[in-house]
Amino acid sequence: MAGRFQGRRAVVTGSSRGIGAAIAERLAAEGADVVLTARTLERHEHLAGSLTETAERLASYGTAVGVVVADLTDPVDRQRVIPEASELLGGPVEILVNNAAASIQAPLTGFSVKRRNIMFEVNANAPLDLALAAAPAMVEAGEGWIVNLSSGSAKLWPGPPAPFAPTALNIAAYGASKAALNRISNGLAMELYGTGVRVNTVEPRAAVLSEGAAALVGDRLRPDQIETMEEMVEGTVCLCDCPEDVTGQITVSLDNIERFGLTVHGLDGSPR
Questions:
Q1: 3-class SS letters over 79-103
Q2: Number of structural domains in the chain
Q3: Strand partners, 199
Q4: Residue ranges making up the domain that contains 158
Q5: What is the pLDDT along the chain (272 residues), one digit of tens a residue?
Q6: Does any domain span residue 180?
Q7: Are 48 and 57 in contact (CB under 8 A)?
Q8: Does 1 map to a domain?
Q9: Within-domain flag for 270
Q10: Set 102, 174, 240, 248: catalytic member
Q11: By CB neighbour count within 10 A (0-12 exposed, 13-18 middle, 19+ buried), where does 245 fall?
């Protein structure tokens, strides 16, 4: 598997820590030149990880690593990401992984417009803007891969009087932003079909205990409610080089592993 992404140019958003950093590492380990982007250049006071630390880790694989610090909540600031990444990579972006997400969990009743707007900017508008910025060069090249990280919270509940966990009431707004991302991804894939550009989403089947998730819910989950970071990454990177007819799909990480008969590898690309 060494060199699977050799010479490919990739951008991974939200790659200062967690799933984004892990995806970026796996791509670099298999030969991709990677640009990392997030708001956090140096370590955050409350969470481990930073763009600097991710870049230092990826440098050990010997591929080119660049950093673009940007605020994806800002429609103007995020316009810099793809042009600056292309300059750092020495050519157009071929793989775009929209991993960055904002999760503000609270009931819809009393949920402020400001908070809703933050989530929709990061979770729906930013991925679309970055995809639209990267797509023209992909179309010109005749191939490209756009992978958007979604969430099972996008699915609809059966509705009353069906039972639900009380904490589920807190994720309706977040789930709505991810449902929007799914629909945007599917629609963009339809528009680009036939150009060689693939657009898909992937979501975890179970919880992936990144730093943020572990802090929020790690102590409330059973082992069967958790999937490993390596499984999530495996189920994601398969969409970074999938065939042309795999597009417009809303996929699940563990299902992708089963569907494509994948072996789960470590973040360094070695078989587990």
A1: HHHHHHHHHHHCCCCCEEEECCCCC
A2: 1
A3: 146
A4: 9-259
A5: 458 999 999 999 999 999 999 999 999 999 999 999 999 898 766 667 899 999 999 999 999 999 999 999 999 999 999 999 999 999 999 999 999 999 999 999 999 999 999 999 999 999 999 999 999 999 999 999 999 999 999 999 888 888 877 778 899 999 999 999 999 999 999 999 999 999 999 999 988 965 555 445 545 555 657 899 999 999 999 999 999 999 999 999 999 999 999 999 999 999 98
A6: yes
A7: no
A8: no
A9: no
A10: 174
A11: exposed
Residues 6+ apart with CB under 8 A from 132: none
Burial level of 224, CB count in 10 A (0-12/13-18/19+)?
exposed
174 catalytically annotated: yes
Sign of CA dihedral 201, 206, 208, 209: positive
Q: Residue 255 is which amino acid?
A: D
What is this structure's pTM?
0.93
6: β partners: none
* Contact predicate 149/122, CB 8 Å: no
Tokens (6 digits) for 155: 């699915």
Q: Does any domain span residue 267? A: no
Best CA proximity match to 103, nearest among 167, 54, 51: 167
Query: What CATH number does residue 179 fall under?
Result: 3.40.50.720
